[in-house]
Write a sequence for this structure.
C-alpha cells in the first residue's frame, strides 16, 4: 500500500464516509439552526442595548457596559461549563442546546453592543442637530438618522464577529449538543477512522467559507477612505 | 438564593480548589507565551505573502487565511489531536494545542497585518527606497511601524481572543486553568471552582477589554 492509499484510507474511507454522512448531515442542521438563532437574537439584543445606552441614563449605561465587558472578557467555554454543570444543582434545568444558545447569544450581544455603540458615537454631531432641528424627537433621530449610519460602519466588524461566534457552536460538543463536531467525534470512535472528522471539517468549511469571503468583500466595500 | 450562592460562590470550595486552579493558571500563561508570539510571526509571514508580487503566493496566502478562518478552532484542535494519530502522527496535548493554534492564530493575525500593511500608502515605501534603504529595511523601519500602529486595536482585540481560546485546551485534557477548575468541579459537584477561574480570566482580560473599547470606532474590522 502506498503512502497515498494509506492517507485516503485514513481520511477519506468511502465506506465510513457513506455510513456516517447522514449523522453528520443531521449535525449540520443543528449547527445551522443554532447559528441562525444566535445571529438574529444576539445582534438584535446587542443593537437594542447600544440604543438604550444612547439615552445616557447613567445607571443603565453602567449596567450595559458591565454586561458587555464581562461577556467579552470571559471565554465562552467557561460560561458554558458554569451554566451546564452549575445551574442544575441550583434547581435550574436547561438543555445543553439552550445553554449553548444562551451563552453564545449573550457573547455576540456583548460584542454587537460595543460595535453598534462605536458606530453610534462616530455619527457626526451635526447629523443629530440637523435631525432634531427638523422636529424629530430624540428617539426618532436615533432610529431614523443615527442608527442607519452606525449600522453601515458596523456591518464589516459585525460580520466578522458573528462568524467567529457562530463557529463556536462546536463548543456544544463538550456538553453533548449533537452538532457537526459531536456527530463526527462519535462516528470516529465507533469507526476507528478519521474520515468522519475530515468530513466534519469540510462541512464547516462549506458552511463558513462563503461568509468569510463575504466578510472580506464587505470590508473592502465599506472601507474607510485612506487619508 | 442560598442554593445559588452555595453552588456558584462557595468560598470554602474556592479556597480548597485554589492550588489546583493556580497550577492551571501557569499552564494557561505558558500556552499564551507559546502561541501568541508564534501566531504573530506566522501572521506576519501570511500577511507578506498576501501582498506579494507573485500572484500564486498571494492566492495561496488568502486561501490559507480564509480556510483557517472558516474552521472552528475546536474542530482544528480535535483534528490535530485525535485525527492525525490515525495517520501515524501522535502529538502530546501541548503540541496539539500549539500546532492548532498556530494555524488558527496565523490566519487571524495575518489578516490584521495585511490590512495594516495595505493601510500604509505606497508613497511611504517609495520615499524610503529613494533615500537608499533596502527593501527589507524599508519594511522594517518605515512600513511595519506605521502598519502596526494603524491596526493596534485589532491586534489587541485578537490577542484577547487568543487568550480566551486557550480554554479549549481543556478539551484535550491539557491541564490549563479551565481544565483544572473543571476537575475540581467534578470532585466537589459544585461550580464554584469554575467561577473562580472565570474571576481570574476577568482580572486578566477586563483591563485589555477596556483598552480596546477606548480605542473606539472600528475595533475589529
Amino acid at each position: 500500500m502506498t503512502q497515498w492509499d494509506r492517507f485516503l484510507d485514513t481520511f477519506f474511507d468511502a465506506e465510513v464516509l457513506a455510513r456516517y454522512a447522514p449523522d453528520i448531515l443531521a449535525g449540520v442542521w443543528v449547527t445551522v439552526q443554532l447559528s441562525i438563532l444566535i445571529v438574529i437574537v444576539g445582534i438584535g439584543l446587542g443593537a437594542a442595548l447600544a440604543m438604550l445606552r444612547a439615552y445616557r441614563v447613567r445607571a443603565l449605561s453602567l449596567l450595559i457596559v458591565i454586561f458587555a465587558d464581562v461577556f467579552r472578557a470571559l471565554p465562552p467555554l467557561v460560561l458554558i461549563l458554569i451554566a451546564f454543570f452549575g445551574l442544575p444543582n441550583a434547581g435550574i434545568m436547561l438543555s445543553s442546546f439552550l445553554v449553548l444558545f444562551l451563552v453564545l447569544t449573550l457573547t455576540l450581544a456583548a460584542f454587537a453592543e460595543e460595535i453598534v455603540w462605536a458606530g453610534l458615537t462616530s455619527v457626526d454631531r451635526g447629523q443629530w442637530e440637523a435631525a432634531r432641528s427638523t422636529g424629530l424627537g430624540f428617539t426618532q433621530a436615533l432610529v431614523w438618522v443615527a442608527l442607519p449610519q452606525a449600522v453601515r460602519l458596523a456591518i464589516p466588524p459585525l460580520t466578522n464577529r458573528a462568524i467567529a461566534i457562530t463557529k463556536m457552536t462546536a463548543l456544544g460538543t463538550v456538553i453533548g449538543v449533537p452538532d457537526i463536531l459531536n456527530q463526527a467525534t462519535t462516528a470516529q470512535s465507533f469507526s476507528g477512522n478519521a474520515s468522519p472528522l475530515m468530513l466534519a471539517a469540510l462541512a464547516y468549511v462549506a458552511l463558513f467559507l462563503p461568509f468569510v469571503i463575504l466578510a472580506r468583500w464587505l470590508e473592502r466595500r465599506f472601507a474607510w477612505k485612506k487619508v | 438564593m442560598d442554593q445559588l450562592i452555595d453552588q456558584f460562590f462557595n468560598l470554602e470550595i474556592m479556597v480548597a480548589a485554589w492550588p489546583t486552579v493556580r497550577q492551571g493558571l501557569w499552564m494557561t500563561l505558558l500556552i499564551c507565551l507559546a502561541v501568541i508570539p508564534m501566531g504573530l510571526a506566522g501572521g506576519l509571514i501570511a500577511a507578506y505573502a498576501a501582498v506579494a508580487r507573485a500572484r500564486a503566493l498571494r492566492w495561496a496566502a488568502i486561501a490559507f487565511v480564509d480556510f483557517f478562518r472558516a474552521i472552528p478552532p475546536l474542530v482544528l484542535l480535535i483534528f490535530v489531536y485525535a485525527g492525525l494519530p490515525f495517520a501515524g502522527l501522535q502529538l502530546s496535548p501541548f503540541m496539539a494545542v500549539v500546532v492548532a493554534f498556530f494555524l488558527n492564530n496565523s490566519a487571524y493575525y495575518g489578516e490584521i497585518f495585511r490590512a495594516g500593511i495595505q493601510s500604509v500608502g505606497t508613497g511611504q515605501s517609495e520615499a524610503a527606497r529613494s533615500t537608499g534603504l533596502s527593501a527589507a529595511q524599508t519594511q522594517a523601519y518605515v512600513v511595519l511601524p506605521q502598519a502596526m500602529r494603524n491596526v493596534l486595536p485589532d491586534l489587541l482585540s485578537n490577542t484577547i481572543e487568543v487568550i480566551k481560546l486557550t480554554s479549549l485546551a481543556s478539551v484535550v485534557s491539557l491541564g490549563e486553568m479551565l481544565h483544572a477548575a473543571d476537575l475540581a468541579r467534578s470532585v466537589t459537584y459544585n461550580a464554584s471552582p469554575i467561577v473562580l477561574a472565570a474571576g481570574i480570566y476577568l482580572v486578566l482580560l477586563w483591563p485589555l477589554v477596556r483598552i480596546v473599547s477606548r480605542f473606539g470606532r472600528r475595533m475589529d474590522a
